[in-house]
C-alpha cells in the first residue's frame, strides 16, 4: 500500500489568501495543515507521496525535501486546467503503478489515527465518515447512509440529505478499485471523489465506513480555518520578537521572529502573527496575520489578513483581506 496526499487544488473558496499559496501549506499553530497529516502517516511505515500541480510545485519543494516526501506534479497552472482529484489520482498512478492506496485530502484535519483506520481495512473500499450533526451543513459534502459499517447510499452535495453523516476525504482503496479509475473517468466527474464512490456503489461494489468522533475540519472557509486553529493551538510559541512593556499577550498564540508588538497592544488568544509584522496600539484576537503586515490603532477579531498588508484605524471582524492591501479609516 502507498499513501497519496492530495494537495493539487487551487482552493478558490479561500481566495485571495490562497491565490498565491497552497492551502495545505497554510499555518495552523506553528505547523502547516499538511504537517498534521504527514505526522499521522509516520506510524504506518508506508511510502508517502504528495500530489500537487506545477503552479504550487516551488512552494512544496523545500517542505518535501525536509520531510523526505516525493512530489507527484501534474502539469497544470490554473483552476481552469486542473485535472481534478480523480484525474490527479490517475496521473499519480501512472507514475507510481497500481497498488492499494490510502488517499488523504491535504486540507483535512481530523482526530483519528490512520493506523486505527487501516486496521479496519479488509481489502474492500473504506472511507472515513463523521457526523456533522446538521442537515443544512451536510448539503456541502458527500452524505453517507450506513447499515452497520457498510455504505448503502452515498449522495454528493445533495439538496435533501438523507443523514448528517459525511465522507471526510480519507479513503483506502484496493488495487482492483484503483484500476477502475480509467473506466470511471470516461463519464464521471473528475473533481470530487464522492462521485466515484457513488459510481462504485451503482456497480455493486461493497464500500465500508470507519466512523469517528472528536473533531474534523475541512479547511474550505475562513471560519473552518479559524476553528481548526482554536482546536489545535494548545500552547504558545513565541520566537525572537520585540514587545512593548505596555503590551499584553494572551495565550495561546504563535508569534514568529521579527514581529514587533508596540504601544498598548493586546495579542491573543488563538492568534497567529507572521514574521516581521508590526502590531501597534491594536488588539488582535482569534485571527491569522501573515508575514510583513502592519496593523496600527485597529481591532482585529476572527479575521485572516494576508502578507504585506497595512491596516490603520479600523475595526475588522470576520474579514478576509488579500495580500498587499492598504486599508485605513481617516482620522
Automatic annotation (TrEMBL):
Q: Which residues form the Nucleotidyl transferase domain?
A: 2-234
Source taxon at top rank: Archaea
UniProt GO molecular function: transferase activity
Record-linked InterPro entries: GMPPB_C, Mannose-1P_guanyltransferase, NTP_transferase_dom, Nucleotide-diphossugar_trans
* UniProt domain Mannose-1-phosphate guanyltransferase C-terminal: residue ranges: 249-313
Which family does the entry's similarity section mention?
A: Belongs to the transferase hexapeptide repeat family.
Which PANTHER family does the entry mention?
A: SUGAR-1-PHOSPHATE GUANYL TRANSFERASE
Q: What is this protein called?
A: Glucose-1-phosphate thymidylyltransferase
